[in-house]
Amino acid sequence: MSTALKDMIRNPTVAELELVARYAALKADPRRERLFEAFAQTGLPHRRIENWRWSDFKAGVGALDAAGQAPAADPLVAEGVATLRFTPQGYTAPSGLPEGVRLLAKDDVQAMGGAEEAPLGALAAALSGAKNAPATLLVEVTGKVPARLHLVFSGPGAINAARVVFLLRAGAQLHVSESHLGGAAFSASLLEYTLEPGARLNRVVYQRGGKDEAQSITALINQDAEAETKQTVLAFGARICRIETRLVHQQTGSLATLNAAYLAGGGYHIDFTSNVRHGAPACITRQVTKGAVLDGGRGVFQGKFHVPRTAGQQTDASMQHNALLLEEGAEVFAKPELEILADDVQCAHGNTSGALDANQLFYLRQRGIPLETARALLTEAFIAEALEEAGDLEEALRAEAKAWLAI
Fold it and tell me: Could you tell me the pTM of the whole model?
C-alpha cells in the first residue's frame, strides 16, 4: 500500500486504522487498491457528507473487536434450498446447486463501477478475500425456471466482508433471499446484479443486528430491456445500519419494484437509501417504504429518482415513504428526491410521518383489545403493504414483524 493511499484518511479513528491494517494484510492487487482508494477518499462516511448526515459511521463504528451478541436466528432458511454462508472465518458453498446456476469463486478482485458513490460497498469489495473466502464470488444464472438461492451473512468475529456478483442471462429467473444476521462488529457486503434482456429477479432481504454492531448492505443492480426486479426488505437495524440500493434502467421497458419495511427499537438505527437512474425510455419504478420507530430509535429514508432529459422520456415512477413514531423520542428523517429533466414523464413521490390514528385505537379498545395489542395490530397492518411482493417468504417476514411488535 502506497503511503499516499494510507494517508488519504484524515484524522483516522481506531476503527479506520484497523480497516487499513486489514486491507494491508490482504493479497496485493491493483483493483483492490483502486477500491480501497475509493473508500479512503472519505474514510468511514460521516455527518458532514450530505448523503450520510443522518448515518454517521465514523462516530458509530467503534473498535473492531468481536461483537458481544450472537447472530440472530435466520427466519428465511429452508430445507433443500442451496445456501451460501459468509462469516468472518470464511465462506461455505452449498453441497448442490439448482439447475441453471453456476458458481465461480475468484481470488482476483473485480473492478467496480461507481465505487466513489458507494464507499462502503467499495470497502466491502476491497476487504473481501480473507481466510478461505473468494475475493469475488460470481453466480451465473441461465435457467428459465426460477432458481432459488439463500445467502447468509453472520458472525461471530470482528469484520465480515463479502462480495457476490450475479449475472442473470437473457430470460433467466432467480429467487434469492439474503439474511444479514449480525454477530460481527462490522459487517459490509456488496451484492451486484446484472439482468440481461427479459431476466427476472426476486430479491428478499432480512436484516437484524445488535446494539454494538455496524452493518452496511450495498446492492448495485443494472437492468437491460424488459428485465424486472422485485425487491423486498425487512430490517430491524443495529447500532448503525445502512441498506443501500443503486439501480440503473439501461434499456427500454425495464421494471423495478423496491419495497421495504423497518422496525427500530431504542438504540437501533436503520437507514434505507436508494438511487434509481432511468437511463432508457419507458421504464417503470415503484417504491414503497414503511417504518415504525420506538423511543430512542432512528429511521432514515433517502430516495432519489434521476430522469435524464432525452433517455428518460416516458418514465413512469412513484416513490412513497410513510413512518410511524410510536413513542416520544422516536426519530425519523426522510429525503425523497425527484430529479426530472425529461418532459414526458409520470413521476410522483410522497412522504408522511406521524403517530397511530387515535380513532382506530379507540375503535379497537372499545372491543376489549388491550392498548399494546391494539398498537401492535395497527402497526403490523401499516407495514404489511411493503412486504406483499416477497412471495413465499412474505409470511416469514410478517411473523418476524409480529414477534417484534409483541415484545
Answer: 0.96
